[in-house]
Amino acid sequence: METKSTAKTAASRAAPKAETAQSKIKTANAKPHPEVLSAQVKDILSVLVVFRFINALCVRTFFQPDEYFQALEPAWSIAFGTNSGAWLTWEWQHQLRSSLHPLIFGAVYKAAYSLMTWLQFFAVFKAFILVALPSVVQSLFAALGDFYTWRLATEIYGIESYAPWTALWMTVLNPWQWYCSTRTFSNSLETTLTVAALYYWPWELLKDTKSDKTEPVKSSSSVNSLRLSLFLAAVAVLLRPTNLLIWLGILTFTVLRFTLDGASPITPAIVAKLVREITICGLAALTISVVSDRLYFGFWAFPPYKWLYFNISQSLAVFYGKMPWHYYIAQGIPLLTTTFLPFALLGLYKASLSFAHYSPAKTGLTTLQSNILRTLSSTLIMMTATLSIISHKEVRFIYPLLPILHIVAAPYALTFFTASPSPSSSKTVILRHKLFLANLLSVNLLLASYLSLFHQPAPLSVLNFLRSDFERLHPNSLSFDANDIGNGELFALFLTPCHSTPWRSHLVYPALRARALTCEPPLDTAPGSIERETYLDEADRFYKKDDKGKYGIGFLGEEIWPIRRDGKRSGEVPRYIVGFEGVEGLLKEFFEGSGKDMGIRLERAWEGWNGAFNEDWRRSGKLVVWGTGKEK
């Protein structure tokens, strides 16, 4: 009995000590040691790099041609020369694009090829590595985008808050991120550059001097952070000129302090410092870009000006599609955020649309935190509204705004799915609405899986088939040096909407000759002219239906294989014809009718499923490769 009583007394004495120790642990967790923080940052980045590497390997589908034709085709030309068979579209021929983006992949192509040549790898293995390499490189940029989203959220909400972790989970579990972040779009790199620049931006410029009288951007570390931010922003603007709208918004709200709370720390001296640093960093980035473009194009060029001239003055962007003014509101932002849309809308509303009711006292945020969120949200709305005026719209154009959407949505997602633990609880977080959360994550997983594995995989797999068959049939023509290759057979003719597949980045070998329908815009026509309105590119002419609803047969007989004066048809007969199932009937009708003298008997050599649906009737059904009967 004495033993039990003694133990009970000891336990009761130890209880307060245990509670004190637990309290200390919680306090320590609230403010981690700098070394612990540093290790945590490295661990998070390492995990994200591995995660996005796996992500890149899992994406096996085709999305949009710019992923290849605005990045990898010019990169291939940089690495292997102008005679390598890379398809340089009209934008590159008229200097609308900066060479900085493809230069990254061109350098990687060149370095990897040189290393593999030194190691005496087989040509087939070289081709395999070169096809996969760009996605692997892009996975690093995607991981950095996730990483800086988390760091920016930490900068805003504080290391003690769970909101940054929520923002990180949102960007990791976002289906759009899984589907697009590892693709080699310039928009994907632009997104990473933007969120990194926002992280390094000196947000103390938005503080209230009544509560903090220290001068902002005074220390050398703060100035260096500003310079890094401005340099990254300048590169993003050079890659995509519309990115300038983000930084005009940030600067406008910072300097004019429109809708922000508290007394401004901005002085004429700080404005002069900002102007000076913007000029220096902008000129540094511009110099690098101009030199790069000079080396790539062979003469002095300024792509941002050409981009503005052709897309704004000449209205050529409309040639690739015209969307209603509400496209970004009704489709763009919902597609970016998917299941997180309600939290993003609530965050935007709280931060920017109810200035009179959104005060630090009512939200638990400091004045600086609320000012940062308000600036980011208002900038997002301003950019979306401005881009809505432009007729040609794509979701990718507002992709750099996605990290902001995750950050403003994070506190509301956190509040909805978690509850504050009781004082006696040892748990740091309590989940609630678990069934709803499970359903939400299941929808995200299904979307990401379907889009990455099953929606339009054929445009990639068909090129794997063609390349493999070329390696089998022409084992002595696998050189990467275009000067060593003669003018061999036309291996494939693509009768598909233009740019329906990647090109040399997946065909690889210069000797693998192929032809596809083109869709060059009417560069020599005036906006609003009859010539502009009635213009039909090559793909349009092929798919133009006659009064009977038929298409393609006349195009084949008049443009692909026209009749010569001697009554025979000219034009090369390819080994394979590639097209979607819808063209099979017209091909057979042509080769069994007016083209019968060509002696072609079509046989399916390969076919690939291309998803459960397609919004473009020209791409409906399977993608098929027909053999023409040429001697194998």
From TrEMBL:
GO terms for cellular component: endoplasmic reticulum membrane. Its main location: endoplasmic reticulum. One of its GO terms (molecular function) is alpha-1,2-mannosyltransferase activity. The chain crosses the membrane at residues 127-150, 278-302, 325-351, 372-391, 397-414, 435-454. It is found in: Endoplasmic reticulum membrane. Residues 1-27 are annotated as: Disordered. Keywords: Endoplasmic reticulum, Glycosyltransferase, GPI-anchor biosynthesis, Membrane, Transferase, Transmembrane, Transmembrane helix. Residues 1-21 have a biased composition (Low complexity). One of its GO terms (biological process) is GPI anchor biosynthetic process. It is a multi-pass membrane protein. Belongs to the glycosyltransferase 22 family. PIGB subfamily. This is Mannosyltransferase.
